[in-house]
Design goal:
The protein is of the alpha/beta class and 296 residues long. It contains 11 helices and 12 strands. It is 46% helix and 24% strand. Strands 3, 4, 5, 6, 7, 10, 11 and 12 form an 8-stranded mixed sheet that branches. α1 crosses α2 and α6 crosses α11. The termini are far apart.
């Protein structure tokens, strides 16, 4: 099964063999054994490109969940010998910087013995870590394959256009096409917030390159400062710019043709044997959200 998952990583027998320190014929034999055991073909070729069959996709999703649960089970068994378990949680950048810190603090302050490993990255990175089993669950704002991951809604957040305080776009309301003469300052490819904008632009037969110029940055703080200094406009979740809007350093661009409210969602592998544990933890974050809000 490990061999099968390695082949699935980049659809290449040779690279899988190298990572596993096996010969390529041995990797091929492992795949044949699995196909014989399940009575179906797992891979097929389209031209020279290797791809999963429908049965192969089903096995991959189930096997990745089993692999993740094996890692978690090993850690829990070590707990019984006195070794402390570490809760491994993934967070997308907007959520990590602006939405969840008070909730995590309240959760940690409930129990001084709790240890956590917080992985921060874009949606693409977190989905890869979930598949590899390096995190237990994630709180993210991007798009994910819902047939693979169990999901629980955490909150919903407005997605808005933002400009500098002195920009004429801050006054009145506008259509998206009126913004195309501006420089767009946006997150890197693979980020959840960028994906939302790209999907919206695609519906209008537009793309990021439709703006007069494009700046990509992996830091939300840097994006906000560049917009504040009049370098262009951006699209972010309201939670990420709430303080700047309140202080008047940034202004919302009110768009007549864009009204987006997006989910912030807890996700973990579907059918994980630890699903109820993850759900309980997520519910506790929900409760700490209420407690934390009362301290503002």
């Amino acid at each position: 099964m490990e061999t099968f998952l390695e082949v699935c990583r980049d659809m290449n027998y040779t690279r899988a063999a190298k990572r596993l320190n096996l010969t390529q014929p041995a990797v091929s034999q492992h795949i044949r054994w699995l196909e014989e055991a399940y009575g179906t073909q797992l891979f097929s070729y389209q031209g020279k490109k290797l791809q999963l069959t429908r049965a192969g996709e089903l096995l991959k999703n189930s096997a990745a969940t089993m692999q993740h649960d094996i890692f978690s089970l090993k850690e829990r068994m070590q707990e019984s010998t006195g070794r402390q378990r570490i809760l491994k949680m993934g967070l997308t950048l907007t959520i990590a910087e602006f939405e969840i810190p008070k909730r995590i603090a309240a959760y940690l302050n409930r129990d001084a013995s709790v240890s956590m490993r917080l992985s921060v990255g874009n949606t693409r990175k977190l989905l890869r870590e979930l598949e590899e089993g390096t995190i237990d669950f994630a709180l993210e704002e991007g798009n994910f394959p819902r047939e693979i991951y169990h999901h629980e809604l955490y909150t919903q957040e407005r997605y808005i256009a933002v400009c500098a305080a002195g920009d004429p776009l801050a006054e009145g309301s506008h259509y998206m096409e009126e913004l195309l003469g501006k420089r767009l300052i946006i997150r890197e490819a693979g980020s959840g917030s960028r994906n939302i904008l790209e999907r919206y632009l695609e519906m209008k037969s537009l793309e990021a390159a439709s703006f007069s110029a494009l700046v990509e940055a992996g830091s939300i703080g840097l994006i906000k400062r560049l917009v504040e200094y009049g370098c262009g406009i951006t699209f972010l979740y309201e939670t990420a710019v709430r303080e700047e809007l309140k202080a008047g350093r940034l202004r919302e661009i009110r768009l007549r043709d864009m009204h987006i409210v997006h989910d912030f969602t807890f996700i973990w592998r579907e059918n994980s044997i630890f699903g109820e544990d993850y759900r309980t933890i997520c519910e506790m974050f929900g409760k700490t959200q209420i407690a934390a809000a009362g301290k503002d």
